[in-house]
Amino acid sequence: DHYALYEKLTGREYINYIADIYRVGREQRDLWVDRLVKRFELAFAYDSPMRTYSHGMKQKIAIIAALVHKPKLWVLDEPLTGLDPNSIYQVKETIREYAKQGNIVFFSSHIIDIVEDLCERIAIIKKGEIQGEWAMEEIGVGNVEQHYLKTIGLTLEQLKLQDKEESEFVAPAKKGLFASIFGKLKKDKEETHGSVAPSAKKKGDLVDNDVVFGPKNELLLKIDRDTLKKMTEDKQKSVESGGEGDV
Fold this sequence. Notes:
Layout: H1 11-21, H2 26-39, H3 55-67, E1 73-77, H4 85-100, E2 104-108, H5 112-118, E3 121-126, E4 129-135, H6 136-139, H7 144-152, H8 156-174, H9 179-191, E5 195-196, E6 210-213, E7 219-223, H10 225-240
Parallel strand pairs: 1-2
Antiparallel strand pairs: 3-4, 5-6, 6-7
Helix pairs in contact: 8-10
């Protein structure tokens, strides 16, 4: 989600800079880059500073920069994250076209439909370890999701139960069950000139893995999964017994 772009430069200046690093000739550069700029519909902003670009525009510029020297191996990490449907289509078509030219496109994704649509071979990773590698023909179109769940040892029923358990003790936090405790924490820490982690921006927004830091940036509180569940249960009991619900 964060791109290593020199955002004071325009899109054109940045692409030319990357092309110069790889010593891409002017003729090849202009033909190839102009084609990508038109495909990604960036012509209107190509000469504007990249700091004015949206998330999707920055992602497209990063893709053009990666392809400017036509590498034989193109590595992408979640290339479609945060893109609108039109941009997703453009990137997918670029991946297909680039692979058809005899190049290798290697990318990671948690979106199984995208993997099934684009890939000839897939590998499944669990906890940092490759569980196996298969040709798409071995799995069959429409079977990738089931194959994935079987490989990592989950059934659809277990996955649904896992999602249900997540929502049961994360959703209440979003409904404000922790408004009082978070309000108190926020007030206490502000009095000592501390700060609250960006992920907990307002009252009632404490969720799994939120942290609170003190004035010297020391860790004062970490809301883990078990703590969050217990806080939810205690809060509910307090409310049901007629109390105000403070924990």
